[in-house]
Amino acid sequence: ASGVIASIFAASRMLAMLTRMKEVPHRHLGMPGTVRVHTMVYTVAFAMVLTILFDLRRIAALGAIFYLVMDIAIHWDSCTGSDRKSACGPRSSPQRSCWT
Questions:
Q1: CA distance linking residue 22 with residue 17, whole number of Å
Q2: Residues 41/29, Cβ–Cβ less than 8 Å
Q3: C-alpha–C-alpha distance, residues 100 and 92, integer Å
Q4: Does the model's pTM come out above 0.85?
Q5: What is the rounded distance in angstroms from the CA atom of residue 66 to the CA atom of residue 15?
Q6: What is the rounded CA–CA span in Å between residue 19 and residue 33?
Q7: Each residue of 62-87: pLDDT tens digit?
Q8: pLDDT (tens digit per residue) in 24-50
Q9: In sequence order, what DSSP letters do the residues of the chain get, joined into one string?
């Protein structure tokens, strides 16, 4: 039970952080409270829908696939030069390395 609560907390905090950074769109949908409370509700609702629709093996497989896609997207973005502040990318100096 504590692992589930910790996972929900971590996922909702990550979603709240991305929402504050304007990376994820956010709607209040008439709910009172802060963005952090809203993301907690969204995370729990999404987990309940997944639990109803899929068995645990499929949920775990979806989680692994989404994690890999997210990891690839973050590395692609940081290494293609779209973020000019990054040490990666075509305009980085030879002394600064992306991988060290």
A1: 9
A2: no
A3: 13
A4: no
A5: 14
A6: 15
A7: 888 988 988 888 788 777 765 555 55
A8: 777 767 778 787 888 888 888 888 888
A9: -HHHHHHHHHHHHHHHHHHHTTSS----TT--S-HHHHHHHHHHHHHHHHHHHS-HHHHHHHHHHHHHHHHHHHHHHHHTTSSTTSS-STTS-TTS-TT-
- The one-letter amino acid code at 75 reads H
Amino acid (1-letter code) at residue 36: R
CA 67 to CA 84: how far, in whole Å?
Answer: 25
Question: Looking up tokens 């589930």, which residue turns up?
Answer: 4
Contact, 13 vs 21, CB < 8 A? no
